[in-house]
Amino acid sequence: MARAKAVDVVATLEALGATVATCESITGGLICGELTSVPGSSRVVRGGLITYATDLKTRLADVDPALIERHGVVSPEVAHAMARGVRRACQADWGLAVTGVAGPGPSDGVAAGTVWLCVEGPGAGATVLAQDAGDRQQVRRLVVDQALDLLASLLADAGQENR
What we know:
Layout: H1 2-16, E1 20-24, H2 30-36, E2 45-50, H3 54-60, H4 65-71, H5 76-90, E3 94-100, E4 114-121, E5 124-131, H6 136-161
Parallel strand pairs: 1-2, 1-3
Antiparallel strand pairs: 3-4, 4-5
Helix pairs in contact: 1-6
């Protein structure tokens, strides 16, 4: 299912003349991997940051450590900062970020399956809470699908505005 979504996202980005970059924690690069599995994706995928470790969120995606201290690493604020940071770092039109807990148990008081997804682009953006059930791999695969759905939705809206 993610493969078909990635094909659609790449085609839409190309039609819009836009680019995307990902900043991934919980998924460890799976979203960027899906996007780059599509032939021709090099025209629209700028790259990605795998910021699995908290310190990499601050060093690579320029997330303010005070923001993480105040809200926790799995929060809408941090997801938004990651999306902004990857847009800047990769010079992309759209930034997609995910941060969460895959499990099997909670982490820092956050339940397994809790994920914040954020997409930010030119004049548009959304941050969404997902609470997925399943084992680590199921949660991670669901997050990939949800992230691609969120990006596709915002790109569709941007496409409507350009008409």
